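TL;DR need structure tokens for one chain.
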Amino acid sequence: MTATLEKDIQTFEQILPSIMNQEGKYALIFDAKLVGVFDTYADALSAGYTRAELKPFLVKKIAGVENVANLSRDINQCPIIPLS
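>> reply
TL;DR here they are.
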């Protein structure tokens, strides 16, 4: 992970308590600053590309509990399914 994204994640974690009243929306963080809060992921992503162009930025859902999915599977045990 780049240092820029690490700073953006730290910024998000620091401001999360102050934006929890907007839970379910999406925060856009760029250059370690909150750019805005958006209703949808697509809106936040679009604003991120407009603002940051090709520089790294963070879009993160505002939530009290983060849902993390860890999936693992032994690759040797996976069946091969033809793509016909």
